């Protein structure tokens, strides 16, 4: 073998290693994104369908999606990407005592922050 063949072989090996590392990072990022799915998140499936997450079952590795009132169950691997994360809200329940001694309950819902990353 001459020097040029060794250089070409070394270049191919380096390219394969770099591509594998990039693919592994992309797969880890996708898995992390899927594990953070929550109710209300808007997603796109690998088939191109836009839907809203209704429930996530990590034990069975499935997700229930709401597509304009039609509920479908998919595997988590079918989620291509998250379009928009659901907004986080904080529910505060307060008990208020009036002058007459009656207890009134008030529920206050506050938007905490948009969880979109």
Which labels suit this protein?
7 strands, 1 helix, 117 residues, two-stranded antiparallel ribbon, five-stranded antiparallel beta sheet, alpha+beta
SSE topology sketch:
Elements: H1 3-35, E1 42-45, E2 50-57, E3 62-67, E4 70-75, E5 79-84, E6 87-97, E7 103-114
Antiparallel strand pairs: 1-2, 1-5, 2-3, 3-4, 6-7
Could you explain the architecture of this structure?
This protein has about 120 residues and is of the alpha+beta class. It has a domain at about 1-35. Helix content is about 30%, strand content about 45%. It contains 1 helix and 7 strands, in the order H-E-E-E-E-E-E-E. Strands 4-3-2-1-5 form a 5-stranded antiparallel sheet, with helices on one face. Strands 6-7 form a two-stranded antiparallel ribbon. The chain starts with a helix and ends with a strand. Mean pLDDT is about 80; it is low at about 115.
Q: Specify the helix fraction band.
A: 25-40%
Tell the overall outline: elongated
Regions with little confidence, pLDDT below 50 for 5+ residues = 113-117
Radius of gyration: 24 Å
Tally of DSSP β-strands: 7
Count of separate DSSP helical elements: 1
Instruction: Please give the alpha-carbon distance between the first and last residues.
Output: 51 Å
Please write the string of helix (H) and strand (E) elements: HEEEEEEE
Give the integer mean of the pLDDT values: 81
The proportion of residues in beta strands is: over 45%
């Amino acid at each position: 073998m001459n020097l040029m063949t060794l250089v070409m072989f070394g270049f191919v090996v380096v390219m394969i290693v770099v591509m594998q590392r990039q693919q592994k990072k992309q797969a880890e990022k996708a898995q992390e994104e899927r594990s953070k799915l929550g109710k209300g998140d808007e997603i796109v499936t690998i088939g191109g369908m836009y839907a809203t997450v209704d429930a996530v079952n990590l034990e069975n590795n499935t997700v229930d999606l709401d597509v304009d009132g039609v509920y479908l169950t998919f595997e988590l691997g079918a989620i291509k990407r998250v379009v928009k994360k659901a907004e986080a809200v904080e529910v505060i329940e307060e008990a208020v005592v009036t002058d007459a001694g009656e207890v009134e309950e008030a529920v206050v819902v506050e938007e905490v922050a948009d969880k979109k990353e």
